[in-house]
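Please describe our next protein:
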Amino acid sequence: MQYYPVKKMIGGIFSGPVVMRKLFYLSLDLLLLRAWHVRKALKVLTKKYPGEAMILDAGSGFGQYTWRMSRMNRNWKIKAVDIDPEHIESTREFFRMTGLSERVICDKLDLTELKEEDVYDFILSVDVMEHIESDELVFRNFFRALKPGGTLLISTPSDMGGSDVYGEGETSFIEEHVRNGYGIGDITRKLESAGFRNIRTAYTYGKPGSVSWRLSMKYPIRMLNRSKLFMIILPFYYMFTFPVAVILNFFDIFLTHKTGTGLLVSAIR
């Protein structure tokens, strides 16, 4: 199942007026469970970095996390990078129109070519690493780009069904994924090899989150891959499923999961 074409189509609908973009971000914040978990983790980091800080949104996509972080602390300066030039151009224009372009820089970048050293206090990477074959190279790049004591926060699918893969021979629900997900031991080993310490991992998308993901993401993407005409039906679909997904998301972030289809990982340089 292809995700990028659907993502571009939906993003294009909301890429115009600022109010539409903000509405889009609000919808993503409510609908996507990973946004709930990342938001919770970011609130903790606001206490660690209460003053000025340099932040890298590594694989910024639509820019929704850059937007959130830009409002969490007015002293934070954020660099949003993505390999997709269309994402970067639309994000750059949005922050120009909102008057935040002095604090937010948007650049096209392949993370395997990140060369900066000792620049960032904090790096955020949400649903990116499962798309990058040379993940260990990128982890080393992150380590080098962080200041000593800096924090890395990663949200990514786990190998416990994160790409809707539960057994041998099955393929990822998202064709653009180069791996089906990370095991805790696997990503911990790779981060340690890159030099990181104090690595903490937690499963996300437990039983409530798994159901929410199917309702809010899997089934709509399947419909849109079959025909763009489903865009007409989608608002009515979400009219019934959106409240259910929000309730399930609420339960997921307050429960401790022994297993889950997502991972939230933090590490210190």
